[in-house]
Structures are given as C-alpha cells and as structure tokens.
Design brief:
Layout lengths: L5 E7 L6 H7 L8 E5 L6 H7 L3 E4 L5 H11 L6 E4 L11 H9 L4 E11 L6 H18 L10 E4 H7 L8 H12 L3 E8 L13 H20 L7
Parallel strand pairs: 1-2, 1-4, 2-3, 5-7
Antiparallel strand pairs: 4-6, 5-6
Length: about 240
C-alpha cells in the first residue's frame, strides 16, 4: 500500500519569531507540500517561511478560516489528505505520524486531542478550557459520539474535505468541520497530542479574554446550528 499524499497547511499571522522552528519540526518525508497561509503579517512571517522551504500564500482578510481556505485553493487537488496545525509552536508537528496512522486505517478525520494527551502548565488558560468543554459537550450530546477537543492539529481526507464544503472564515473553522463531519457520518477519530506554550511573540486571539469572547460567539453559532440542523446558517 502506498503512503498517502499529505499536504500541510499552517495559518500564520505575525509569527516570524517561531515559524522557522515550527517548519523544522514537520517530518518532511511524510509530506508533499507545506503551505503557510500568511494572514496579513507585518513582521516578515512570510519571508521567513519561504526561507525555511515552505510555500507561502498571502490572505489579507483576517480570520483562521480565511487563511485555511486560501491555502487550500493554492494546493493541487490530487492529494490524499490535508493536515492543519498552528504557527506558534503550540502543536508538536513531530507528532504528525500519530494522526496519519488512523487515516491509513480508514478514518476520514483525525483530530489531535490535547485533553487525551498532555498540556504544558500555562499553555491553555481556564477560559479556553471552559469554552472547549462547552463545545465538545454540545457535540457529544447532539451526535452521541464522545468528543474531547476542537484542537487545531488535525488531518482530513481530501475527498471528505471537499464533501464538507467548508466556508467559515473565522474561528468557527474547526467546529464547522466537526459538526459537518458528524452530520455526514464520517469516521472521526481522536488521538492524544501535546499542547505547548507558544514559542515566541505575543498571544493571538485565543490567548486573550477579549479575543476568546469574539471567537466564542462564532463557536456558539455553530453549536446552535448543530442542534437546529443543517438548514440553520450561523452567518
């Protein structure tokens, strides 16, 4: 059996301090293309990513989902799977083989669960933990399959990703993926991963109360959609 053709997408905004180290951790023997989606950086993130051997796509419209969609549009569509991880070093990219193993065994979507793995002290504020618990409890109750995390480190089959028709351009991206995957009956697996303190620079939206509140509004909209059904449009 041939190895799956895997592309990696890393949304990034002002992560020049750590993007090189993140790219260096990726097991390149397992990956075809690494795309850094530069989401309006002003600190040279894109230039450092290029110097480290990544492809770079510029997306000026702010939003995690917007960056992911721009990167996806830049990739050839003949790959088998796409992996996503964050640009600040919180994910441990060397753990990518953990996520690829269930994919090779038939999973459609593999989510790296930080709560099944290890979280460094101080890496996840209490308000983030509470928000994750609310979202995952809602998904578990709605679809009857235990969910522990909405972690950004994940791998999805390319055909499954096309079927999901992703469109959220903000911080609802990961939850949109999980809601739609559950509705479609896709094979979703969680594997334990590490979650570390960011490796440099200032905290982004998820690391501040104000930013997390803004993200929570989007996430709650998707949770309402999960309860009300696919006809509900959270936009």
């Amino acid at each position: 059996m041939r190895a799956p053709v895997v592309d990696v997408i890393i949304p990034a905004r002002d992560e020049a301090a750590c993007i090189g180290a993140v790219l260096a951790e990726i097991p390149r023997a397992l990956v075809r293309h690494v795309v850094v989606a530069d989401n309006g950086s002003r600190d040279g993130t894109g230039e450092r990513a290029l110097a480290a051997g990544a492809r770079v796509v510029r997306e000026e419209s702010p939003g995690y989902g917007a960056a992911c969609l721009a990167a996806l549009a830049s990739l050839p569509d003949d790959g088998d799977a796409v992996a996503f991880l964050v640009a600040d070093g919180s994910d441990d990219a060397t753990e990518l083989p953990r996520l690829l193993k269930p994919l090779r065994e038939g999973a459609d979507l593999v989510i790296g669960s930080r709560f099944r793995g290890t979280i460094e002290p101080g890496a996840m504020p209490r308000f983030q933990r509470v928000g994750n618990l609310v979202a995952t409890t809602g998904l578990t109750l709605r679809f009857g399959h235990r969910v522990t995390d909405m972690g950004p480190f994940r791998v999805i089959r390319r055909d499954a990703l096309r079927a999901l028709a992703m469109r959220d351009r903000t911080w609802g991206w990961t939850l949109e993926m999980q809601v739609k995957a559950a509705r479609m009956g896709l094979r979703v697996v969680e594997v334990p991963v590490s979650w570390r303190n960011r490796r440099g620079g200032e905290p982004k939206i998820g690391g501040t109360v104000r930013g997390s509140l803004a993200a929570s509004r989007v996430i709650l909209s998707w949770l309402r959609g999960a309860v009300l059904g696919p006809a509900f449009d959270p936009r």
